[in-house]
Amino acid sequence: MFEVWAPDAASVEVEVGGARHPMVAGPRGWWRAEVPGAGHGTDYAFRIDGGPPLPDPRTRRQPYGIFGPSRVYDHGRFTWSDHDWRGRDLRGAVIYELHIGTFTPEGTFAAAVTKLDHLVRLGVDLVEIMPVPPVPGRRNWGYDGVDLWAVNEEYGGPDGLKIFADACHNAGLGVLLDVVYNHLGPSGNFLAEFGPYFHESAASFWGRAVNLDGPWSDEVRAYFIGNATQWLRDYHLDGLRLDAVHALVDKRATHFLEELATEVDTLSGALGRPLTLIAESDLNDPRLVTSREAGGYGLTAQWNDDVHHALHAAVTGEDHGYYGDFGSLAALAKTLTSAFLHDGTYSSFRGRRHGRPVDRTRVPGHRFVCCVQNHDQIGNRAEGDRMDHESLKLAAGLLLTSPFTPMLYMGEEWAATAPFLFFTDHVEEHLREGEADRRRREFVGFGYDDWAEKAPDPSAESTFLRSKLDWREIDYELHRAHLNWYRDLIATRKAFPELFDPRLDRVAVDFDEDERWLVMRRGTLRVAANLGEEPRDVPMPPGQVLLASDEDTRVRPGGVRLPGRSLAVLRLLDP
């Protein structure tokens, strides 16, 4: 049975093997047709009012790319081996974000499977993969996807994603998928040909907003909610990261995010395993992760850029753009204890007050996914440059001992030197030629005024190839030592429940702005950091060093002696 939603069409045909088959109109704008002999592996396309052949908006497979016909794909034909998998809860977990195309030299799901042992030894719990729908050309970050129900053939198609998820589960790793519901890519986007998928007036920098609250929006919401549940049910994924939810335009009484969370919670009960929804949002609004019973949207967690900004500014000294408010240790202390710096305070970057407070007694820290690096914070720099290894060691030490859910970005654990650049492969010449300028305009005011001079051509294949990780680096002494630091940090976090205790009101921070030292108090443990260049005596009760980034760390009467730019985790001897 072929079916498609096209409420404004006068006629719809499904084309199979060169033959057109008229479809019959049904309730609420749905058209249906039976085509004898069609099944798994059959190629097909739809024609609206006699127009050109178009791929199915709900295509499960696009073997010829975004402009070609769709292919029938039967989820039931795949054989799973993860029957004992019971899911992975976000509480206490460490996330590892990766881009399939640059994670390995081959850039496929199959190649990524060969690296799972590395992730297991590292100690992470959940793998978060950047978007995987079909995109223009052969290389892309994934946020220009258009056939949202399908999987990029360059990576291995739908079976490839299932093989990856199956292997992760058998290795004890959960899988999160980054999905984009706030816009579609500019190339190969045929949804508007089928119906009112897009908002009549609202838009963002990336394109037209989807129609979540206008006429016919019930079916549009069902399209995206069905897409979300497909990944969780048919691909056995453990959760979704929702891209830029602040760009969702929805004025209905029940917000799309609340409706989505309700459906996913229902599916979780049916499947008998936890399912996670993580929102990317720059609103600093704890309502996203507040339960629906308490008037929130009921999402599992949200990305928290404030913690990233505070850590980045503290260890690098950068103060341009949105880092301008975050350079002090006072800002870092506030984010480590209260999640947001801007919780109703004035944001100089925005030129206004921003955010609302987190109730530290009610909202647990694990609901905030925080990082030192991610695809945006590296890739949104003109040269895609990563943090140096000394700064990474310091920042990671604070992140992995914080009450939040930590997330690492691929290669960070060994201080990878490969940049993560912005790359695309648009087919249309006008999109290819204008991509660099569009990217530059997106970051006006971010402090990257020399973007045009520094950023490589996003359409050049070399830009993509430079972004691939070099796994040989792990064999070099500096990188191997860095990897061991990350392994030790994660192991220490998991060995002492106080370090991943999510209760924000149990976290306190002492600091000296002039001396540039900071101590985070976690129960009987102390995380002491010297962010200055010179050695410092950091006052604290007598303690035993459990882990130190510098072997010259020394416990002294009345405190601990920390070398410059170093961190230590200590246990109090007399708590």
Distance between the termini: 68 Å
| Shape descriptor | elongated
- What's the mean pLDDT score? 95
Number of DSSP strand runs = 27
Q: What spatial order of strands do you see in the largest sheet?
A: 8-9-10-13-14-15-18-19
Unreliable stretches covering 5 or more consecutive residues: none
Account of the protein in words:
The protein is an alpha/beta fold. It has 16 helices and 27 strands. The strands form seven sheets. The protein has an eight-stranded parallel barrel with strand order 8-9-10-13-14-15-18-19. Strands 20-21-22-27-24 form a five-stranded antiparallel β-sheet, covered by helices on one side. Helix 7 (256-271) links the parallel strand 13 and strand 14. Helix 8 (305-316) packs antiparallel against helix 9. The radius of gyration is 25 Å and the shape is elongated. The model has no long low-confidence stretch (mean pLDDT 95).
Give a brief description.
The protein is an alpha/beta fold and 575 residues long. The protein has 16 helices and 27 strands.
Q: Key features?
A:
alpha/beta, about 575 residues
Mind sketching the topology for me?
Elements: E1 2-5, E2 12-16, E3 19-22, E4 24-25, E5 30-33, E6 43-48, E7 70-71, E8 95-98, H1 100-103, H2 109-113, H3 116-122, E9 126-129, H4 157-170, E10 174-179, H5 191-194, E11 198-204, E12 207-210, H6 217-234, E13 239-242, H7 256-271, E14 276-279, E15 301-303, H8 305-316, H9 329-338, E16 345-347, E17 352-354, E18 368-371, H10 375-379, H11 389-399, E19 405-409, H12 429-442, H13 451-454, H14 461-466, H15 477-495, H16 497-500, E20 507-512, E21 517-522, E22 525-530, E23 536-539, E24 543-548, E25 554-556, E26 559-562, E27 566-572
Parallel strand pairs: 8-9, 8-19, 9-10, 10-13, 13-14, 14-15, 15-18, 18-19
Antiparallel strand pairs: 1-5, 2-3, 2-6, 4-5, 6-7, 11-12, 16-17, 20-21, 21-22, 22-27, 23-26, 24-27, 25-26
Helix pairs in contact: 6-7, 8-9, 8-11, 11-15
